[in-house]
Amino acid sequence: MTGEWQAERDWPLLTQGLAGRLRQDCMKQWLDFVGHPFVEGVASGTMEVEAFRNFLIQDYLYLIQYARACALLVHKSDTLTAMRHAAQLLSGILDTELSMHVGYCRQWGIEEPALEQAEESIELLAYSRFILDRAQTGDMLDLLVTLAPCLIGYAEVGARLHASPRTVREGNPYWSWIALYGGDEYTALVEDGVCRLNEVGAAYGAQARYPTLLREFTTAVRLETVFWTTARSG
Ligand SMILES: Cc1ncc(C[n+]2csc(CCO)c2C)c(N)n1
Fold first, then answer.
1. Which tens digits make up the pLDDT trace of 61-98?
2. What is the ipTM of this complex?
3. Quick check: is 156 catalytic?
4. Ligand 1 atom with minimal separation from the 151 CA
5. 3-class secondary structure, 47
6. Across the chain, where does the E strand assignment appear?
7. What pTM, to 2 d.p., does this model score?
């Protein structure tokens, strides 16, 4: 691979199908999200540690709300197969990701009681309650579209930083974060999720509902962008 990472060439799946169309149709907001100063600060290793710690605390609280949305995805599923798929997502968060996140936070000097006692930021409240609103009011497709920027955005950021010659590796305290989202395990999860979105999109008439879906996707992208700003000191 030469030069900078490019979705169309290096991970075409992200640019195809329903997810690819949504990403393309809100490209301005998308670039604000994946090219945010947070991402640059992680790539260069220059972000303040206290800011990153605050982000990790809010991200823990985000995962809890994300799990509640997955629980509603189980409820909204209309086949046993879909229910099992959603239940796997839910169990992935509850049984694996949350404890991994707690362990990761401990490496950054954040103990579990501090996570449990932390107050939800305005940014987290806005984003997670938007997701939960779509989860309660919409159907399975509305919810999957609303969750897609979370899945695809972190994948794109991880893959790009992992591949970029400009990313600082040696002595970069954030390399482990990049390695997580740029790693094979996360990549496989994303490929699964993108395919699932295409299937549900076809079954639920995404074509006819596209303007509404694009609004949901774009709002979630804007909220992801704002969520990066929870990485601040003080
Ligand atoms: C604000 C925020 N957005 C996205 C992710 C990434 N993420 C969280 S749960 C999940 C799906 C299943 O693991 C993904 C990709 C994050 N951590 N924080």
1. 999 999 999 999 999 999 999 999 999 999 999 999 99
2. 0.95
3. no
4. 15
5. coil
6. none
7. 0.97
